[in-house]
Amino acid sequence: MAELDWSVEYEAVIGVEVHAELATRSKMFCSCAVVDATTSEPNIAVCPVCAGMPGVLPVVNQAAVELGLRLALALECEILPSSIFARKNYFYPDLPKGYQISQYEQPLARNGRLTLLTSQGEKTVRIRRVHLEEDTGKLTHINRDGESYSLIDLNRAGVPLLEIVTEPDLHSAEDVRAYAMALRNLLRYCEVNSGDMQKGVMRIEPNVSVRKRGSPHLGTRTEIKNLNSFRALERSVAYEIERQIKLLEAGEAVVQETRGWDEAQAKTVSQRSKEEAHDYRYFPEPDLPPLIIEQAWLDEIRRKLPELPVARWRRFQNQYGLSAYDAEVLVNERVVADYFERAASLAPQLSPKTIANWISGEVFGLMNQAGTEFDPQLLPVDSLVELLTVLEEGTINQPTAKAILAELFGSDKKARQLIREKGLEQISDESQILKWVAQVLQENPEQIQTYINGKDTLEQWFFGQVMRLGGGKANPKIVQQILREQLKRLKEQAKSE
Ligand code: ADP
Ligand code: ZN
Ligand code: MG
User: Fold this and answer.
1) Which pLDDT score is estimated for 2?
2) Which one, 269, 310, 312, 326, has least CB within 10 Å?
3) Nearest CA, atom 21, ligand 1
């Protein structure tokens, strides 16, 4: 679709529903193990409770409630002292009981907020509700010998989920992406789950509508499903906003429906309309009592919460004098923020800005190349600190430091040892450097003539020649200083002749 400047006349309005898996060892209402969805054999973690046999009784997993509360507190929600489990009834082969145990009128928590750090400053998204529920099984549709089959895997049936629903406070695809990333960071900070979207531990469903700017009414919304990456999320929302505006511009109406994201065609496609939508016939779950949250327990969970990203972002700016941007890059992920703080405390003599730059530049680059997430084991923090210290002392120069960093990465070597082994110590001996400078000047009489005639930029070229002659080990500051003196001397000589 061609770019369309709709932002003057129209406003997009978006609310997001996220399903986050709670990384517990056992399921929500039985003692079956929670196994890795992508690597496990099917149906190895199933019992009569999660297989929906008649006559069995669910028992609430306390660890799941604790993780849910942790996130709800991190989202500054009001926690209901008593919440109610409810049956959400519908028939589908991935739902063995014929209903899902969820929460409806009285959720675990509500009225929270999440602050986003965006390019236009801080934005607050209101959280409408946070509730507990259980996941469904997984269907795989296959075709063998011309026959089609549907296979069911119940490993995921009954895995604890937290549903987090926002108010319609977002207004662009970029906003939605920022919200999803901030929520993912929070999930990881609170150790609620790994945030691994490929594994389906965080599933995002944006509800999108548009309206004429200034209108007090919400437009008709569509809900987008099947999004398994931030990229798909952002693209699908942008597509959907444009699609709806074009409909309205053509005098047509938006139909309330569920749409899927077709990655190959880069568009959203209708899945089911409101007429086909389920009537879930919610009613309170008769097999479970109200979920009572004791104040003392809640206080204890609150006490154990880590410092959260936004608070840490503010502190990094105050305590380390980092820019808002540098601080953000570091705090997004808890492991990165921890790594930076350990480096800063191990090496108070280094400037925090220098440490931050090396982490977000070189170290991120190496992690990327290795195709992994930020993994401190690949570069122990004391290795980085030793390298930066050696650099600061002037034993090596910047390019050498970068080369050494690449070698330290993934090895158990240390910077000083490597520098010694490879004889990479920076050469600051002025008489040696003077010899190199003299040699370069002597070997390039034509360039010197051009320089004397006024082409000052050649100084940089001479500098490069000297550095090369010194095998990259010469102290660049001293090279520059000596080179300048020599060039100046040659110019004066030429003038007086
Ligand atoms: P359900 O999906 O069960 O119908 P809700 O009606 O509570 O649930 O809404 C789900 C999400 O859709 C919420 O995040 C809400 O903010 C958002 N939403 C509701 N109406 C609109 C609308 N007209 N435009 C955009 N988002 C909306
Ligand atoms: Zn079970
Ligand atoms: Mg919905």
Assistant:
1) 46
2) 269
3) 221
